[in-house]
Amino acid sequence: MASATVANGAAAASDQAVASTIDEDLYSRQLYVLGHEAQRRMASSSVLLVGVDGVGVEIAKNLILAGLKSVTLFDPMPAMTADLAAQFYLTPDHVAAGTPRAAASLPLLESLNPYVSVSLLEADGGASVADTVSAAASQYTAVVLVNQSLAAQTAVDAACRSADVKFMSVGAFGAFGRIFNDFGPAFTVSDVNGEQPRSVMISAVTVDGDDVVVTCLDEQRHDFEAGDHVSFTEVQGMTGLNDGKPREIKVLGPFTFSLVGCREEVAAMGEYVRGGYATQVKMPSTIVFKSLPEAAEEPEYVIADFAKMMQMGTTHAAFQAVDAFRATLGGALPTPGSAAHAAKFVEFVEAAAGSAADDLDAKVLECFARTAAGVLSPMAATLGGIAAQEVLKATSGKFMPIKQFFYIDCQEVLPSPPPTEAECAPTGSRYDGQVAVLGATVQKKLAALNYFLVGAGAIGCEMLKNWAMMGVGVDAASGGGIVITDMDQIEKSNLSRQFLFRDADIHKPKSVAAAAAVRVMNSDVNIVAHEVRVGPETEATFDDEFWDGLSGVCNALDNVQARLYVDQRCVYYVKPLLDSGTLGTKGNTQVVVPGLTESYSSSRDPPEKSIPICTLKNFPYQIEHTLQWARDWFEGSFRGTPEDCNAYLGSRGKDFFDDLKKQGPGTMLATLEAVHSSLVTERPLSVEDCIKWSRLLFEEMFSSSIKQLLHAFPADMVDANKVPFWSGTKRVPTPLTFNAADETHMAFVTSAALLRAQVYGIPVSDKDMAHFPAALAAVMVPDFVPKAGVKIATTEAEASEQNASGAGSLDQDDERIETLLKALPPAGSAGSDGASKTLVPLEFEKDDDTNHHIDVITACSNLRAANYSIEPADRHKSKMIAGKIIPAIATTTSFVTGLVCIEMLKLVRLGYTDRDGGGYDGGAWCKAAAKGSDAKARRDAAEKKLECFKNGFANLALPFFAFSEPVVAAATDMGHGRFWTLWDLLDVNEGRDITLGEFLEAIKTHYGLEVSMVSCGVSILYASFTNPRRLQERLATPLSEVARTVGKLTFLAKQRYLVMELICTDKEGEDVEVPYCRYRFRF
């Protein structure tokens, strides 16, 4: 009988995991993917993981980070040298001692998450894996088998089906991977896609014949699909629709849909009047799974790569036959690189297929056999991410599972011709498992790589782990190494995805902590950590010499601007770039190949749609509007105005006044009013003053301003056509009356007062907080009196017009400005006390739950929402929207980084990571053509290499996978068969700093072009029409000196290059459009 041995402290962790509360600090990003209900289900689920090799440890790591109740490991196999190529928690000492893989991995897996119990399942006696696991299966929510025999899979699957336990098997053989799911005969999925329910405003509900047709408000596409269900709220007239019942729909068009099967019910509800929302309702779906033997006979596939769809049958046959073939070799897998074993395997599988053998692809079978005994860390990461997500689906019921087979391969990483048996032979190296697939030559290239990793967040951590297993840059003698940079420090919310970090690392630099962690995984790793941003301001650190010495660059960034900068550097220095990103269960990868493909910058996402100003100010109708309004108010009140005050106090008056003029029309008077209020009329001197300010602020923001709006536009106002003003997206507001018993009211005034005190450096004691209610009650709130002559914009055009009309108010209000300036403390009088004491601007920080930032924004937004009868958002949702948090989960990160490393192996194989960029010199096409060779033929040959590269997109929730070849870089025609792309430049490197005249001759010699003008920055260094005497002088001067004297340029200490723009003509005198010129002047 099997028994479970629980690691120290795991029992207490288990009790914590099933608690009703969820650690939102730890799981915050993941909760935005899964939601609280799915997280709670996972926290009460137990999983048995059988097989803790490279794939198994990836799955275990991802499950533990996700926050299951418990993960039990079973793997009595001793650690072997080949495991070290992918199993990142095994060491050479484990191999030497013959420590079982599960036991060796337990301590570090346990340290990943204190809320998850991690234990070992130990078998009694000599029971088989199948018998041991089958006997224990009923104790678990799900059982996962990794790289177990087909017989064991079949037996355990049968045991799981009889016990109503979800079953999954995962297999990896070299460049090939497989996942199989059996979640039982009736598995319920609560949310098939993970997308937020869509909601749309409606303008009409009509009974048209047998149909009930719903029309959406103008310009609001519903984006529903046939078979969706919706519920209705706030419908006037047909109020019966507001019963919350889900109703099935049929899509009629982008703005209309009909309700299915409820014509009589709706017809009896009376006439539709106006308003209302239709909101998508997630309906549960029941999925029927077959047992493994049944599914194998008639397999259903989730396609990983549609270009390989016809290979699915061949790959399926290979996985089904491999155990039987091993029996012919005494239990061993085919010898890596063995052509003889590969041929025998092809014959064996074809014979087993019988009449279906003609449908098999012999090349795929041969590749499978050649690599089956090997291990690839990128494949382990890819499979581990997908498989772990499938386990989370099994335990939570969230997202659509794989039904039922999934196959993926990376045959393109193999050298051509494939490595020989001798090339793949083991040498006792920790990389033997990878050498068995790629061969020793590729492994040597990996060791000599010098790669730059930009970012040490979730993707950066996973990437470093993969690189450590792959042996990237471990040969320092050959120039190998890894450089990583990240300016951020570790926060608690990072720990659920950035698995190299632990609690003890919080507040440490990410790059430094990550580098230290991977050195523990592989002592060979040669890594340098920086703590700076990559950008124009750090070009003295990451200089020409640095970039020239790189093999390639990998982005692990979370913002577009940094990506664009790195991309521009890679194009300039002709370096390959690997880029990736995740958004919840969605992930994408891009490989940028020097000289061939588009760069990252070649395509852009459309800009984020902004919220109209008039909507934010006066007519919100979504919680996103109120949150943006609250965030804007926070920025203005607690950062913007204090910064303006400090700028005034720390400057000369004229300088401050001049700076205000530069801000644009309509801003000067408003800024001065705010500074005057903050420093003079409303400057607090005590906590009581801050409390008074916050209470009066509540009255102004949520009562008086709403009353003013209703004074201008009464609730029953109609236009000339009798159409109500308050209709469509305009929701009639209601002023709020302050209530000290209301939690949201108190949250706002309390948080606002505390932040006000912080800005002014006023300490707040426990005594002050105890006195808070009394101080609040003592505030005298003046009665509301409508203001005359207030103009309120009702459209975006009116808002823009009002902003423009404010331009003249600065001159017209000189008297008011003069009055304000006289009342202010003297400019430049910044001090530590009194009226000139500088303020403390608050930088918004979403992840510090003690700083009241999210508290005040949530309360402010929900009070605004209450004004407009908008459904409020809890703190968790408010934090995501206001903080612009990107949902994230470890499974997607693992999957994406695996794909990126597969593309990296292709770059290495084809020579693009060689120091010479695979032979591409940055001007190949135009230079080659100038010398009479066929540039187009060379380019066509190079483009053939693109067939092996893949850009990827996936949504693990659906699940959906799509791969495509990178897009070829667009070419600019130069005439006479010449052209250039974004990768090309006129590269001049004569080994010394040549004269301007020699430079012109070099362009003519190398590129067949006559130069008529040379410019650098905003300066013209040479023009054919320049005064002859001055021109002769310049032509004899070194070009760098011309740039210094004429262009007034200054050079960084290690700067090697000048970048110039040229105007050229060809030998026929025709103007030619050319790329920029890079001239090396320093050596």
UniProtKB/TrEMBL annotation:
Monomer. It holds the Pfam family UBA_E1_SCCH. This is E1 ubiquitin-activating enzyme. SMART domains: UBA_e1_C. Keywords: ATP-binding, Ligase, Nucleotide-binding, Ubl conjugation pathway. Gene3D superfamilies: NAD(P)-binding Rossmann-like Domain (3.40.50.720), Ubiquitin-activating enzyme E1, FCCH domain (2.40.30.180), Ubiquitin-activating enzyme E1, inactive adenylation domain, subdomain 1 (3.50.50.80), Ubiquitin-activating enzyme E1, inactive adenylation domain, subdomain 2 (3.40.50.12550), Ubiquitin-activating enzyme E1, SCCH domain (1.10.10.2660), Ubiquitin-activating enzyme E1, UFD domain (3.10.290.60). GO terms for molecular function: ATP binding; SUMO activating enzyme activity; ubiquitin activating enzyme activity. The keyword Cell membrane does not apply. InterPro entries: E1_4HB, E1_FCCH, E1_FCCH_sf, EF_Hand_1_Ca_BS, ThiF/MoeB/HesA, ThiF_NAD_FAD-bd, Ub-activating_enz_E1_C, Ub-E1_IAD_1. Residues 949-1077 form the Ubiquitin-activating enzyme E1 C-terminal domain. Pathway: Protein modification; protein ubiquitination. It comes from Porphyra umbilicalis. One of its GO terms (cellular component) is cytoplasm. It catalyses: ATP + ubiquitin + [E1 ubiquitin-activating enzyme]-L-cysteine = AMP + diphosphate + S-ubiquitinyl-[E1 ubiquitin-activating enzyme]-L-cysteine. GO terms for biological process: protein sumoylation. The active site is at residue 614. Belongs to the ubiquitin-activating E1 family. Its EC number is 6.2.1.45.
